Amino acid sequence: MKGLTTLLMLMASMLTVVSAEARPIEIKFSHVVAENTPKGQMALKFKELAEQRLPGKVEVKIYPNSQLYTDSAVLQALQLGDVEIAAPALSKFQKYNSQLQVFDLPFLFDDMAAVDRFQKSPEGQKLLNSMTSKMLVGLGYLHNGMKQLSSNDPIRVPADIAGKKFRIMTSDVLQAQYEAVHAIPLKKPFSEVFTLLQTRAIDGQESPWSNTYASKFFEVQDYVTETNHGLLDYLVVTSAEFWYGLPDDVRDTLKKSMEEAITYGNQIAATQSQEDRQRIIDSGKTKVIEITAEERQQWVNAMKPVWKMFEDEIGADLIDAAIQSNEL
Ligand code: SIN
Description:
Largest sheet: 6 strands, mixed
Shape: globular
CATH architecture: 3-Layer(aba) Sandwich
Bound molecules: succinic acid
Number of helices: 14
Number of strands: 11
Strand content: 15-25%
Strand order of the largest sheet: 7-6-8-5-9-11
Helix content: 40-55%
Number of domains: 1
């Protein structure tokens, strides 16, 4: 009898091993935006490529629109092994590496080509790999675009937003940027922005065209001012424990799939920005305000002193390297 029990237990444990081996590796990819955005499309492309190249070996489950985690929770969830991939905005990494705040400095990059050069530079690549001691592995930068200001009131110059409440991401640089123009910045999760705008609990927000369009902020805001005052890009991250625990061949294939998905997402970001701008104009729900060079200079003058405030935390050399990326 004892022999039979032992045999049955052995068979049961063998079955468990066989079924565990046969089960695909589950990769949960959590993000906070809609699927019709550069990040949403990149995530879907990654799933397509990874599952095509590793049939039966991996299953990628995508959770958009903060269905699983907000950005402030997702990095901790990665560290705890509750999720495998995330792509928060660079502004959300301040507490993991304060040098990443360089990306939030207002009016630092002339355009997305300059951002791309900086991200590909040795300094940019070093930042990508700077959080391994926190168990976070950077898989790549992903573009979205330059931010615009949306509001209930027409905004042309800094004086127009004095005393107004603006939602910002969890970034001290962004907080300082709004305080520099005497506005009231409120750090809130992306998932709350639409309701805050709709109920007029806040006056405005800043986002690239794709988020203002896809999350329908334009439907509850009367104006969008084209300031291009700052950047919203992403860092695609995974956890060191998950990544380095993968079989080498699986990791290599996932890495290649992610690189291709990012290239795809970046191509979408490059074209979608202007398309979404036009969709917002065509909706007739929001007026897009184009400011003059003189008005833009007023924003630069008011906000640029923020650079100096964060020079010690970010490093003057790093800020210089970012400035250099504006020159071809
Ligand atoms: C995102 O594009 O991931 C959202 C960024 C934000 O919190 O505004």
